[in-house]
């Protein structure tokens, strides 16, 4: 029975058991029926497309020895493949709490399979008229969940979080140096009188700004400046050519730096990228690939909840300003890959506002929400409005999730310039499916590259995604999979919010079991309560005299509970993974863990880090006791057995 509450229709609560194929294939009947329907419909389409063409393969050909041999080989090799795949990892099982992999929504699998038969390429709409539209709809849905103005945003799908983050920083770098390019282009084209809004609220003449001021124009104001130049010149093609001629992207770092030094007599230090010490390893790869340099990636300390420390961030920015080193971007992590910590993005955005007002500093603000972005769905009601924190908290009682700081951090994504979210992580969608969202669609022009065989002047730009992205060809099936899953599980508290909330509930129950269990003579030290759904814990024992021995022991526990060359999935009862809180990155944030293990910070520095077992809870049924198996209790029993046997 449905009713209407608050002006929108409220359906009966969603049963999450209907979303997945199920650990034992419980929904195999409906899944098989829908897959067969998708296949038959595709064959119907083939047969009715220009039926006058007739058949290309005749029945009598199917009975020749050559034809039958080919099909026999296909069948035999398929049987072999199916046998090989059984040695894979059972991501579908509640027993798997290792990496960020899980069962997938039936909607995404069926959508992917159905579309895969058509093999659309989402580089351009002429090769994918349907799935390009779906991809742009998905991008708008994600932007709406974040809180961006859907009339101004732009976004698309990528192969994953690394490419999505690459694009965000690629754009941030080009926007950072845009005011310099506009100034040089304006001088060449004879355009005078342009002014710029500064972070302090003043307006300054473009030709009167020094280099430090030019490199501290806000992202939106930089795009406004480019628009003003375009309006004054009145010739779009000439504007594009002039900006490309004088931009960092066009000139390259060496020539751009030489011109800065020649004109301003001060090339300044290289632009910095600020990330928390918990940031994903891909950020160093990205800085290297973009030519920014790994040395310019500055790790900001985190607190004991493994969130970026806003005070440390502000101190870092002031130190950079004192030596006149510009900040290209600051990256906040919404769901770290080790601890699922959610940075207080609201406080980080406040820092950006404050240093802008007080010191005239501006930079791009990015949220790396590749892991935790879908959790923002808990902040939206089914009518799209932002929910109160109290309403969100009530959904998961008696568990006190989310904490208010986590909720405020999720809501603050609307204050960023870009956000990356991976549907193939907490979207429960097949690979490859990352996503990047831009607050201001104008920035895409700064990285646009034309391919004359794909984009034709005078044609609509809506479907030419390839013009504005780093990748070229990409599967339309991925877009269809995301689109279908969003249809079944909307990006609000009734859909994805409910699914992710159940995984967080399971993580909290697992954390409680690890922290309160009787493990003697072993000592299990869980990290602080997870902000989302990853549980980590360290392991100690009186026989382990050094931190090096303790780390080695954790490594052997991990090896005993993970697939390897000599250990197949069939031999394991439960699956975990491991990570290392490295001293050079985590600093004193790990002190409570070290103290509980009985070691000092000197031990920590000598060992290089502390190893912890990592459990990623993506199964919404782990803590629900839906069937006869208590998976959390079973994990504890298996872990105890492994600890004793490994020691």
Please report which band the strand proportion falls in: under 5%, 5-15%, 15-25%, 25-35%, 35-45% or over 45%.
5-15%
Radius of gyration, taken over Cα atoms and rounded to an integer in Å? 27 Å
Strand order of the largest sheet: 3-11-10-9-8-6-7
Give the second-level CATH assignment, the architecture of the domain at 132-156 and 269-454.
Answer: 3-Layer(aba) Sandwich
CATH topology description of the domain at 132-156 and 269-454: Aspartate Aminotransferase, domain 2
Can you give keywords for this protein?
647 residues, alpha/beta, Aspartate Aminotransferase, domain 2, Aspartate Aminotransferase, domain 1, seven-stranded mixed sheet, 22 helices, globular, disordered N terminus
Give structural notes.
By secondary structure, the chain is α/β, with parallel strands linked by helices. Among the domains are: 211 residues, Type I PLP-dependent aspartate aminotransferase-like (Major domain) (Aspartate Aminotransferase, domain 2, 3-Layer(aba) Sandwich); 69 residues, no CATH class; 150 residues, Alpha-Beta Complex (Aspartate Aminotransferase, domain 1), CATH 3.90.1150.170. The chain contains 22 helices and 15 strands. The strands form four sheets. It has a seven-stranded mixed β-sheet, sandwiched between helices. The radius of gyration is 27 Å and the shape is globular. The chain starts with a strand and ends with a helix. The N terminus is likely disordered.
């Amino acid at each position: 029975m449905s009713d209407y509450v608050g002006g929108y229709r409220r359906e009966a609560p969603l049963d999450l058991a209907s979303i997945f194929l199920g650990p034992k294939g419980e929904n195999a009947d409906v899944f098989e029926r829908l897959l067969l329907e998708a296949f038959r419909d595709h064959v119907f389409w083939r047969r009715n497309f220009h039926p006058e063409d007739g058949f290309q393969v005749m029945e009598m050909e199917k009975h020749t020895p050559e034809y039958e041999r080919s099909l026999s080989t296909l069948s035999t090799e398929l049987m072999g493949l199916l046998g090989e795949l059984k040695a894979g990892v059972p991501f579908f099982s509640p027993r798997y709490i290792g990496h960020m992999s899980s069962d997938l929504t039936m909607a995404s699998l069926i959508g992917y399979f159905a579309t895969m038969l058509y093999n659309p390429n989402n580089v351009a709409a002429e090769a994918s008229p349907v799935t390009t539209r779906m991809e742009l709809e998905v991008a708008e849905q994600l932007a709406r969940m974040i809180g961006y103005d859907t009339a101004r945003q732009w976004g698309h799908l990528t192969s994953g979080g690394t490419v999505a983050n690459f694009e965000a920083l690629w754009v941030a770098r080009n926007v950072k140096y845009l005011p310099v390019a506009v100034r040089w282009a304006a001088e060449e084209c004879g355009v005078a009188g342009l002014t710029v809004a500064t972070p302090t609220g003043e307006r300054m003449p473009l030709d009167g700004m020094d280099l430090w001021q030019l490199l501290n124009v806000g992202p939106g104001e930089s795009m406004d400046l480019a628009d003003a130049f375009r309006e004054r010149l009145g010739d779009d093609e000439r504007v594009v050519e002039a900006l490309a001629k004088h931009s960092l992207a066009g000139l390259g770092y060496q020539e751009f730096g030489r011109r800065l030094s020649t004109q301003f007599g001060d090339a300044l230090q290289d632009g910095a990228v600020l990330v928390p010490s918990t940031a994903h390893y891909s950020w160093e790869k990205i800085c290297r690939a973009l030519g920014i340099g790994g040395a310019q990636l500055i790790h900001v300390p985190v607190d004991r909840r493994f969130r970026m420390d806003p005070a440390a961030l502000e101190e870092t920015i002031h130190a950079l300003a004192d030596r006149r080193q510009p900040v290209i971007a600051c990256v906040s992590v919404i769901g770290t890959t080790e601890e699922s910590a959610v940075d207080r993005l609201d406080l980080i955005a406040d820092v950006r506002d404050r240093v802008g007002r007080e010191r005239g500093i501006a930079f791009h603000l990015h949220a790396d929400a590749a892991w935790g972005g879908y959790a923002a769905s808990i902040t939206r009601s089914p009518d799209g409005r932002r929910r109160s924190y109290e309403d969100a908290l009530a959904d998961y009682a008696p568990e006190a999730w989310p904490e208010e700081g986590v909720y405020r951090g999720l809501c603050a994504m609307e204050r960023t310039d870009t956000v990356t979210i991976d549907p193939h992580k907490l979207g429960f969608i097949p690979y490859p499916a990352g996503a990047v969202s831009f607050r201001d669609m104008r920035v895409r022009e700064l990285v646009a590259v034309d391919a004359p065989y794909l984009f034709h002047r005078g044609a609509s730009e809506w479907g030419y995604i390839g013009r504005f992205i780093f990748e070229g060809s990409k599967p339309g099936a991925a877009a269809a999979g995301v689109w279908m899953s969003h249809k079944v599980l909307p990006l609000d508290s009734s859909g994805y919010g409910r699914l992710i909330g159940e995984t967080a509930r399971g993580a909290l129950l697992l954390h409680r079991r690890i922290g309160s269990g009787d493990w003697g003579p072993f000592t299990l030290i869980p990290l602080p309560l997870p902000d989302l759904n990853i549980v980590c814990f360290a392991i100690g024992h009186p026989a382990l005299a050094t931190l090096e021995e303790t780390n080695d022991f954790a490594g052997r526990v991990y090896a005993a509970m993970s697939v390897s060359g000599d250990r197949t999935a069939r031999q394991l009862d439960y699956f975990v993974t491991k990570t290392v809180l490295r001293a050079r990155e985590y600093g004193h944030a790990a002190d409570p863990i070290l103290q509980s293990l009985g070691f000092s910070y000197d031990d920590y520095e000598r060992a290089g880090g502390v190893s912890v077992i990592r459990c990623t809870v993506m199964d919404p049924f782990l803590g629900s006791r839906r069937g006869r198996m208590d998976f959390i209790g079973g994990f504890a029993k298996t872990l105890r057995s492994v600890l004793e046997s490994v020691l």
